[in-house]
Amino acid sequence: MTGFPIDTYGDGINQWDWISTGIPKSQQRTKFVYSLDPPIFAIRHNNYKFIFESTSEYFLGNGKVRLYQISTDPYESKNLARKHPKLVKELLNKIFEYQRLARKPVRTVIDEAGNPKRFKGVYASGWCQ
User: Fold this and answer.
1) Could you give the angle at the alpha carbon of 94 between the alpha carbons of 8 and 16, nearest 5°?
2) Which tens digits make up the pLDDT trace of 11-40?
3) Whose CB has fewer CB within 10 Å in the chain, the N or C terminal residue?
4) Which carries the bigger pLDDT value, residue 58 or residue 91?
5) Averaged pLDDT for residues 39-54
């Protein structure tokens, strides 16, 4: 449709087999970026979810670090950060790398008609006044 090879285009998971045959292909993400915006940075790498909450918007040296093995702790109740300092450092470096490679978001607010500033702090469609 766009002229790009299906297997190499985009940043998601190829769903073409499921669409064309109706049979989903078993795929599981091993990497995922939840947030790269200060003050909270979070990524998934293999079975780990890493969260870094910065104490400063400008300096990433200090902050709260959390590491969860989501395959065995889906409720994220046991912080493994102190147990795996090497992995914490590796994942923090991944966040720095992702930030370096990241682009500004393309999406912008299209229509300000529903802006709460226009309706005493409430989101509204603006069609009925």
Assistant:
1) 20
2) 667 778 878 888 877 666 788 899 888 888
3) N
4) 91
5) 93
| In a domain? residue 125 | no
Q: Which amino acid is at 3?
A: G
4 in any annotated domain: no
Average pLDDT for 96-120: 76
Q: Which two three-digit tokens encode residue 53?
A: 């909450």
Q: Output 26-33 pairs: Cβ under 8 A, ≥24 positions apart.
A: 33/98
Q: Give the tokens for residue 42.
A: 């979070």
| 64-103 CB burial, b ≥16 within 10 A, e <16 | ebbbbbeeeeeeeeeeebeeeeebbeebbebbeeeeeeee
Predicted pLDDT at 43: 96
Structurally, the chain folds into a number of domains equal to: 1
CATH number at residue 51: 3.30.1120.10
Helix, strand, coil percentages (3-state) for the chain, rounded to 5, are 20, 20, 60
